[in-house]
Amino acid sequence: GLWSEVNRCGQNGDFTRALKSVNKILQINKDDVTALQCKVVCLIQNGNFKEALGVINTHTKVLTSDVIAFEKAYCEYRLNRIESALKTIQSASQQTDKLKELYGQVLYRLERYDDCLAAYRDLIRNSQDEYEEERKTNLSAVVAAQSTWEKVVPEDLGLREATYELCYNSACALIGQGKLNEAMKKLQKAEELCRQSLSEDSDVTEEDIEAELAIIHGQMAYIMQLQGRTEDALQLYNQIIKLKPTDVGLLAVIANNIITINKDQNVFDSKKKVKLTNAEGVEHKLSKKQLQAIEFNKALLAMYTNQADQCRKLSASLQSQSPEHLLPVLIQAAQLCREKQHAKAIGLLQDFADQHPANAAEIKLTMAQLKIAQGSVTKACMILRSIEELQHKPGMVSALVTMYSHEEDIDSAIEVFTQAIQWYQQYQASQSRGANPKSPVHLSLIREAANFKLKHGRKKEAISDLEELWKQNPKDVHTLAQLISAYSLVDPEKAKVLSKHLPSSDTMSLKVDVDALENSHGATYVRKKAGKLTGENQQKEQGQGEVKKKKKKKKGKLPKNYDPKVTPDPERWLPMRERSYYRGRKKGKKKDQVGKGTQGSTTTGSSELDASRTASSPPTSPRPGSGAAVSATSNVIPPRHQKPVGAPATKKKQQQKKKKGAKGGW
C-alpha cells in the first residue's frame, strides 16, 4: 500500500506526496534504510537540502557513507560547503559515476582546474549516455577558466561548437588570450545559436530569450570596454541591468565594470551600482579573483568619495587577506597622498618593499613618482637606481638620464649609461662562447651615450664609445666624422689618420636630377625650362633684351624754387645741425612769442597743467624707443594695435577733437 504510493508519486514527480507516505512508513519503523533514503531523495528534489543533510547526520549508524555518500556530498555542495563535499566524496569506498560527476563540479568550484580537466576527460572517455553534451560544455568551461584566471594557453580539445554554451565558453577562452576580435565573432555566433534553439519552443517569449542572452551580451560589453569603446559598453551594460536578470553573479560583474568605467567621475551612479555587488549569494557565484577585484574597487570608490576611514578599513582588510598583493598598499598610499601625507605614504611603501622583495620594483617606481611630485628629483633617481632588475632597461636609462640632465648632473647621467653598457657586456659574455656580438639594444645604448657626451662637450669621454661603434660598422661615415671631431681636440695626428678613411668628394656627390626634383609634387619653386632658341624666337628674345636695356629711368622731381644757374648746396643732404654754416637758434625767441596766438593760450601744453588728467586719465602708450617696463599683470595692447604717437596726422585729429569738446563744454 504505502510503498506502491511512494513508487507511483516518485514516477509522477510528486515528491511532496511521496514524502508524506515515506514519513508514515518511518512511523512504523524509524530505522528503515530504504525509507530514510527515499526521504532524503524527496527532500533534495524539493530543494530542502539543509533538512535532507539533517536526516543523514541524525541517522549515521543506519545511513553509512557507502549507502548515502552521493546524497550527502550533493547536499553539502548545494549548501556551498564545498570543502566538506570534497571530503565526503574522497571518503566514499566506491567511486560511482554520479560521484565522479559531482567530483568534477566540486573541483571547478574550488578552482582546481588541472584536476578538474583530468576528471572530465576521464568521464567523457568512459561514459556513453545522453549527458555527453553537458560534459563537453563543462570541459570547455574549465579550459576557459584556465585561460582567464591562470593565463594558460588552452589546448584545442576538438569540440564541435554546435551549442551556444560551447561557443560562449570558447569566446571566454579567446578573451583570456587577448584575441578580442575573434572572441566577439564567437559571441555573435553564440547569440545566433541561442536565438535559434530557444525560438523553436513556442512557450518561450522574447523576454525569456533576452534574459538568456544577457550573459552573452555582458561578455560582448566587456570586450567593447577592453577595446576602449566605453560608451558602447556602458550602454549595453545598462540595457542588461534594466532586464533585471535573476543571476546575481552576472549583475555583480556588470555593476563592477560600470564602476571601473566611471572611475572618479559619476560617483553617485557608482555608489548605487555597489549595492548590486553586495547581493546575497554573489560570493558563491564568482571566482576568487573576481571577488577580490570587486573589493579593490569598493576601496577605490571610498577614496574617490572622500570616505577616508572606509577606504583605510577596506584596504587593511584586503591586505590581511592577501599580504603579498600590491593593490591594497597602493590604495592606502594614494589615500595618504590625498591627505597631503606624502612622507607617511613613502614610508608605508618602503616597509612593504622591505617585507616583499619580489614586488619591490613596482613599489619603488611608485615611491619615485611621489618623490618627483614633491620636487625631489635626485632622491627619485636614487630610488630608481636601487631597482637592480630594471637598471639596464632602455626605458629606465632614458628616464634617469633625462632627470639627471634636468638637475644638470651630467656626471651621474654618464654613469647611468656606463653601468647599463657594462651590464650588457657581461650578459653577452656569459651567453656567447668565444665571439661577443653586440645586440641592437647594446649598440643603441652606446650610440645614445656617445651622442649625449658630445652634446655636453665631453668629446674625450665619447671617443671609446665612438670607436666601439665604428668597429661594429666601419662603413658608418657619420660615426667616423664624430670620432675625427672628438680626436681633433685630443690627438690631431690620430684625427688626420682617421680622416683618410673618409670617402672622397667624388663618391660623396649625389647624382640628382634637378629638373625631376623641381617638377616633383613637393617642389615649392619650379624653374622654367630653358628651351633651345632658334630662328624668330631667338631674335624675339634678343629684341626683348635690347628693349629692357634701353629702358630709361624716370627723372626725379625738382624743387619749386630750383634755379639751374645756382650751384646746389653740397651739404643739403646733412641735417641742419651738422652743416658748417649752422649758427644755432636766435636767443629770445620764446619772449617774442609771448602774447601771440588765441586769447588765453599758453606755451605750456594744457594737458600738462590739467590736474584731472593726471588722476583719472588712462596712461598713454609708451613712446617709441622708450624702455617701458611692463608688469606681468598689466593688460598691454599688442604692438600692431598701437597708433604711432608721433604721427602728425593723429596729432591733428586729437587737436580737432579737443577743440570740438571745448566748444560743446563752454
Number of strands: 0
At the first level of CATH, the class of the domain at 2-148 is Mainly Alpha
State the helix count.
35
Give the overall shape, derived from the CA principal axes: elongated
Beta content comes to under 5%
Provide the CATH superfamily of the domain at 2-148: Tetratricopeptide repeat domain
Task: Please provide a written account of the structure.
With 666 residues, this protein is mainly α. Among the domains are: 2-148, Serine Threonine Protein Phosphatase 5, Tetratricopeptide repeat (Alpha Horseshoe), CATH 1.25.40.10; 160-245, Alpha Horseshoe (Serine Threonine Protein Phosphatase 5, Tetratricopeptide repeat), CATH 1.25.40; 424-502, Serine Threonine Protein Phosphatase 5, Tetratricopeptide repeat, CATH 1.25.40. Helix content is 66%, strand content 0%. It is built from 35 helices and no strands. Helix 3 runs antiparallel to helix 4 (49-58) and helix 23 packs antiparallel against helix 24. The longest helix is centred in the middle third of the chain and has 22 residues, at 410-431. The protein starts with a helix and ends with a helix.
Summary of the model, kept short:
Its main location: cytoplasm. The protein is mostly helical and 666 residues long. Among the domains are: 2-148, Serine Threonine Protein Phosphatase 5, Tetratricopeptide repeat; 160-245, Tetratricopeptide repeat domain (Serine Threonine Protein Phosphatase 5, Tetratricopeptide repeat, Alpha Horseshoe), CATH 1.25.40; 424-502, Serine Threonine Protein Phosphatase 5, Tetratricopeptide repeat (Alpha Horseshoe).
